[in-house]
Amino acid sequence: MDKLLFDFRRTDTAGTWSAIDDRVMGGVSRSQLRHDSAGHAVFEGEVSLDNNGGFASVRSAPQPIGAPDATTLMLEVRGDGRVYKLNLRTDDAFDGVSYQAAFTAPAGQWVTLDLPLADFRPVYRGRAVPGAPALEVARLRQVGLMIADQQAGRFALDVRSISLA
């Protein structure tokens, strides 16, 4: 049974997400998640490598979204051909370990990507965390989208929904 976590066809869903860009460490990248009148959200902005920067991200507000029997996270997206990352957090902290998986959304076409939850790896500030506990899907609290592909420039990822299955 699928559990719809975020339905971005709704006009109010994107507004509960916040940008967390490399500006937190002196960079100058900028991003936002906004609702598009065509019935989806757009994660967009510009990545800059200036000042040791190079990432842009958005994150949902903390809330209980876990599903103990889920094995897959599904994203309905239309991309720009760049590599993005999906971050999962099991706490409400601003900083700390998150669980991350990379994906590429094809440019110009809507697809549903199935990301096996077993493939999400623990990271802290972009670095692997050996020995971290496995992702506990039942404890999921936050979801985030990130771009950190070492390419400066504008980006745009359209998102209709995020679900667990």
What's the quick description here?
The protein is 0% helix and 48% strand. The chain is mainly β and 165 residues long.
Give an account of the 3D structure.
The chain is mostly beta strands and 165 residues long. The chain has one domain: Jelly Rolls. The protein has strands at residues 3-7, 17-19, 30-36, 40-47, 56-60, 72-78, 83-89, 98-104, 111-116, 121-124, 127-128, 142-147, 153-164. The strands form two sheets. Strands 2-5-12-7-8-10-11 form a seven-stranded antiparallel β-sheet, with no helix packed on it.
Can you give keywords for this protein?
single chain; about 160 residues; mainly beta; Jelly Rolls; seven-stranded antiparallel β-sheet; six-stranded antiparallel β-sheet; about 0% helix
